[in-house]
Amino acid sequence: MRSAAAFVVVVWVAGVGGVQNVLAQPQVVDLTLDSAVRLALTNSYRVRQLRMSVEQSQSWLQARRARLRSSADLELSTPQIRSVSTRQWNSDQGRYEIVREDSRRWDMNFSVQQPLILFGYPTNGYLSLNNSMYRLQQFSAEGGNLQYYNRYYVELTQPFFQPNELKNNLEEAEINLKQEQLDFQDNVVDIIDDVSDDYFNLFELAYKRIIQRRRTENLKTAVQIAEHGTRADSVATQRLKVELGNARERVNQLESDFRLQASQMKQQLRLGEGDSLRVEPELDVTPVNVSVDQAVEYGYSLRPKLRRLKLQRRENELALANTKGRNSFRAELEATYGLEMRNREVGSLWGQPENSYSVGINISIPIWDWGRRESQIQARQIGVKKARLRIEEARRDIRNNISNAVRSLNEYQDRALTMEQNLSMAANVSETSLKRFESGEISALELIQTLNSQTDTAKNLLDAYLGYEQALLDLLEYTYYDFKNREPIFRRFDLGQYGPSPETVKDALQQAGAATD
User: Which candidate, 76, 174, 160, 77, places its Cα nearest to that of 125?
Assistant: First the structure.
């Protein structure tokens, strides 16, 4: 039995070790812009914290909404034992007397409270069903006195001429949730922008490495021609070998830079140290036609900036309403109606109850506060005006930024398409020059100049392409719309409840379509 158990343990340990080895095996990650962004959004601690903030605000909102529903409370007081002497004024004798109290009291209060809502609108008032009971036993030299009391009644409290606390608190909680969602969207786009910059740094190094490798292969061919061609030329061979050595050194330097940049990228994407990144750069310049008016509408509706400023304006408006209600004329109605009964026996409390009711109106009239309330209201009004100015300024900035981004996109797009054609011609010229060098029609110096021209053309194409991609990223940041794939950014990466609502996206697409028409 012991040997069997030991065998099981050995097999289990080996199995666990095998699983760990499999999990620990390094992997090669084929990195594209989409896969880099998805890895960042999946593994980012920042995104997880932002989601928790949104969920926290949702819980606060649910708590505020629960205040609009009925609540029940039960208060029990354990025996209040009083055996003390107090000083009281006797008006008949015109002097103070020492009166001793010796009592035992039990209390119970049960209340079911419901905020008063008319036609779906909270009125800031409450309607409650209440039941109060107590047992009071008093002791004296003559003997004891026992009393039971019971009252069940309906109570209405309704304030007037003051801010609606229930409604305002609920709206503030809704605003907080929307702000957290907008912060999430802003931070996600910042992450996309950061990851895109790092990805295109890798992309640039990978493509430059391809350029130098291509140049290295052409120079190797030229050296072979110079060494074994029909006319051997030691000077030309040495010159070509020097260029070949420099080209190889540039390739090595680019590979070292790529490894360093890839190591930083792996940390950002939270990949394992043993993992490696592979980037296959393809310069795909897809012509993108962007209407400025359409892009501006996306910037107004999809981008959170304007919506956040509008929420801040609403917060200022609520603060103004609350300020106007403080230290102002106020009134509150309190009314109760029910039945009550007092008796020495608890079983008789429901025998012949008596009607009980109360009505009261409390009024507060401010007289003088040295202008404090007026100054506070004026300060809040200025805050509302500032919020409106910020909205107007933001609209102008959005339009200007988008117009500049569209202009840059068109310029870099035209340059990239032109350089694609130039690079194709430069490659043909280099191929022809190698043949002419082999036949002795051109010198080594002329060949090197031709190969350098091809390299410069490829670098120019790379610069134009990176400018084209950066302009698309700028448009994405300003509009939250991916014009290359023709869809909103949050629909593309499917962030669900944390992105803008489907109604917001639908309205934005309709408004942008109308602007284009």
Answer: 160
pLDDT value for 507: 59
**Region class of 393: left (phi > 0), else alpha (psi between -120 and 50), else beta:** alpha
Cα torsion through 111, 117, 122, 124, rounded to 10: -40
Q: What is the CATH number of domain 171-316+380-516?
A: 1.20.1600.10
CA-closest candidate to residue 496, choices 187, 191, 185, 270: 185
Question: What pLDDT score does 42 carry?
Answer: 82
Distances (CA, A) of 234 to 227, 443, 444: 8, 12, 11
Contacts of 216 by beta carbon, 8 Å cutoff, 6+ apart: 244, 247, 248, 251
Cβ distance 464 to 419 under 8 Å? yes
Nearest Cα to Cα of residue 388 among 309, 296, 304? 309
CA 461 to chain centre: 37
- The full set of domain ranges for the chain reads 171-316+380-516
Reading the block at residue 130, the tokens are: 């209440």
Written as six digits, the tokens of 286 are 């897809």
What are the tokens at 324? Answer: 């106007």
Q: Tell me which long-range contacts 190-194 makes (C-beta under 8 A, separation of at least 24).
A: 191/37, 191/40, 191/41, 191/44, 191/46, 191/47, 192/37, 192/40, 192/41, 192/476, 192/489, 192/493, 193/473, 193/476, 193/477, 194/268
- The pLDDT tens digits for 83-111 are 888 888 888 888 888 888 888 888 999 99
> Could you say which residues of the chain have pLDDT below 50?
1-24
